[in-house]
Specification:
By secondary structure, the protein is mostly helical. The chain contains 16 helices and no strands. Helix 2 packs parallel to helix 4, helix 9 crosses helix 15 and helix 11 packs across helix 13.
């Protein structure tokens, strides 16, 4: 019996040793490529290191790996790098951070949002950068602790909806709608802090922003969206106060008064994560909100072009 016991013990421990070795190997890979992304002198080497880091992060999804200061620092610097490819590779890594299920996601969101970070990248001149920035921001917001919502609220208002870049204003409206639709905590928060900015954007100088604002207001205040009657009355008063054109205000109020497409399609699709046709961002919003995971590369996802006017009364896919 003793011999048998001695024989069986290594067999039972071998798989555990193998698992520990695999986890350590993946952790070492993340550490190695994080360090390389920070220290490599030229941009091509940084991109190569970030791509390797992305693979390592994807391999460690769901294992409870930690998001340490070195990793966040490397990705934050890459996000703000003037080189487009370095920023794009950093965004690819950032979209994977929520798969690690780490408590540091709140710190990550706070670090990555300020000027020059994720919100500003929503207005990037390159479509794929905008797509990945949108996806990464939404994924981080949905995965972070509820206390992180204050940071996103503040930066969405101050940097996004108030941005001088029209693409950023438009994407920030759609991000707000997608976030509130896919996160019950965010969706239950008061809309009052956003009301003056959203109503102001109804008369924005850019047509795509005006369309996004109109669609966003309808989606956020529709019957069935979670907004109260008092909130809808507040919206009506704010539009009157700011002198929104009667045709725009009446069109919005008519949609809010009818519990048909505005509530059934808009709120229903929003609850499922399909929150808009998202102009140049295509169905990246839907993919992110539905949490299909990072396996789908946004470069393969396309939607209607900027300023598309198909089905103008519908804020859903």
């Amino acid at each position: 019996m003793c011999a048998l016991r001695l024989h069986r013990q290594p067999l039972s421990c071998a798989p555990r040793r193998g698992l520990r070795a695999a986890l350590l190997s993946r952790s070492s890979a993340r550490s190695h490529w994080t360090h390389a992304a920070h220290t490599r002198p030229d941009n091509d080497a940084k991109v190569a290191a970030l791509n390797k880091l992305e693979v390592a992060l994807e391999a460690g999804a769901g294992e409870g790996a930690s998001i340490d200061e070195a990793l966040l620092g490397a990705l934050n610097r890459g996000l703000r790098n003037a080189n487009h490819n370095v920023a794009l590779s950093s965004l690819g890594c950032l979209a994977l951070l929520p798969t690690l299920h780490d408590a540091a996601l709140e710190a990550a969101l706070t670090l990555l949002l300020p000027a020059g970070g994720l919100i500003d990248r929503l207005g990037d001149a390159r479509e794929r950068t905008r797509e990945l920035a949108f996806r990464a921001t939404l994924a981080l917001a949905r995965s972070a602790a509820a206390s992180a919502s204050d940071a996103l609220d503040r930066h969405l208002r101050d940097l996004g909806l108030s941005s001088k870049q029209s693409r950023c204003r438009e994407a920030s409206i759609r991000l707000l709608v997608a976030w509130r639709a896919s996160d019950p905590v965010a969706g239950a928060a008061p809309l009052r802090p956003y009301l003056p900015l959203l109503v102001g954007l109804l008369e924005d100088s850019d047509g795509s922003v005006r369309d996004a604002a109109r669609e966003g207001v309808v989606a956020l205040f529709a019957v069935g969206s979670g907004a109260s009657n008092a909130a809808r009355e507040g919206l009506k008063a704010e539009m009157t106060k700011r002198g929104v054109r009667k045709t725009i205000a009446d069109g919005i109020l008519a949609q809010l008064a009818a519990p048909t497409r505005a509530s059934e399609d808009g709120a229903g699709d929003a609850a499922r994560g399909s929150v808009s046709r998202t102009t140049s961002m295509g169905s990246v919003v839907a993919a992110s909100a539905l949490d299909v995971g990072p396996a789908v590369d946004p470069v393969y996802v396309r939607g209607p072009s900027l300023g598309s006017t198909d089905d103008p009364d519908h804020f859903g896919t």
